[in-house]
Design goal:
Blueprint: E1 34-43, H1 50-63, E2 68-72, H2 80-84, E3 91-92, E4 97-98, E5 100-101, E6 107-109, H3 126-138, E7 144-151, H4 158-166, E8 171-176, H5 180-195, E9 200-209, H6 227-233, E10 238-243, H7 246-253, H8 266-274
Parallel strand pairs: 1-7, 1-8, 2-6, 2-7, 8-9, 9-10
Antiparallel strand pairs: 3-4, 5-6
């Protein structure tokens, strides 16, 4: 450092040892909390079952003995509480919020647990939505958590960007469906993750096939699967294919999703352990 240093590195061309690095964008976790792994669940578009997959993964994690949490970052379209049968409003003090807890001990924070009525719309612009997501990380007393799943809103807008920049995300699960158009859109989410230098370690193709209970055949109702092609193209190590099954929707509608076992996601849970 020279004697004439002004401490303003933005206006200096010197490459000295004291040169300041850009400010870290990671938000500080609540001081009374500890979170081991953070797994973001993304999709390129809506309607592919991202929240369903998030709920199933969290349930499988809890059954494996992990202290599990779900942050519902889909502020304008929250659906996580419904699947777990959670009602009422979150409690808290002047400085912190406390998450709700499901019957199997999964901790959940969602905007729908903060509204007067669950059908009230959240009509906010992007920066406010992003700020709320950060507060879910900084102002919620999560306690001791092994694995947190973040249910992201679809697309690559303000909130997904905030999550990937502000939370220490260890890996990403991308959810898609078989249509070629959806596969194209999902690649946008994969490329966004690459830009953020966060690994996409698993691709889950929901509604991948339907097994006829009468004839046993599995017609490609939504077209041929593209999961393996996309995974190979982007070096995604784990691929899971989930069937069209009315029991999933029935369990979610009844608030019983945490009691539904989906063996097809076992590889994803194993991959999370290896992160």
């Amino acid at each position: 450092m020279s004697e004439s240093c002004s401490q303003d590195c933005s206006s200096c061309g010197e490459n000295c040892e004291s040169r300041q690095m850009p400010q870290d964008l990671l938000a500080p976790l609540n001081q009374d909390s500890h979170v081991g792994k953070v797994i973001a669940v993304m999709s390129g578009k809506g309607g592919v079952g991202k929240s369903m997959v998030t709920s199933l993964l969290a349930s499988a994690s809890a059954r494996a003995g992990k202290k599990t949490a779900v942050m519902d970052a889909d502020i304008t379209g929250p659906s996580i509480p419904q699947g777990f049968g959670l009602e009422g409003r979150l409690t808290g003090s002047e400085t912190v919020m406390y998450p709700a807890s499901t019957r199997t001990g999964i901790k959940v924070v969602s905007m729908n647990l903060m509204l007067q009525e669950t059908t009230d719309p959240v009509v906010w612009r992007g920066p406010i939505l992003a700020s709320v997501v950060k507060q879910f990380w900084t102002d919620v007393e999560w306690g001791d958590i092994d694995t947190m799943f973040v249910d992201m809103p679809p697309g690559t807008g303000d909130v997904p960007l905030t999550v990937l920049q502000s939370l220490p995300v260890d890996g990403i699960v991308v959810v898609t469906s078989p249509q070629e158009m959806v596969s194209m859109i999902v690649e946008k989410a994969v490329k966004m993750a690459q830009m953020m230098e966060i690994p996409v370690f698993s691709l889950v193709e929901n509604m991948s096939y339907f097994k006829c209970p009468d004839c046993g055949k599995s017609p490609d109702i939504f077209g041929k699967s593209h999961a393996e092609e996309v995974a190979k193209k982007y070096d995604i190590s784990t691929v899971a294919r989930l069937p069209m099954d009315s029991s999933y929707a029935a369990a979610a509608d009844a608030g019983e999703i945490e009691f539904l076992k989906e063996e097809g996601l076992g590889g994803v849970i194993d991959a999370i352990e290896k992160l």
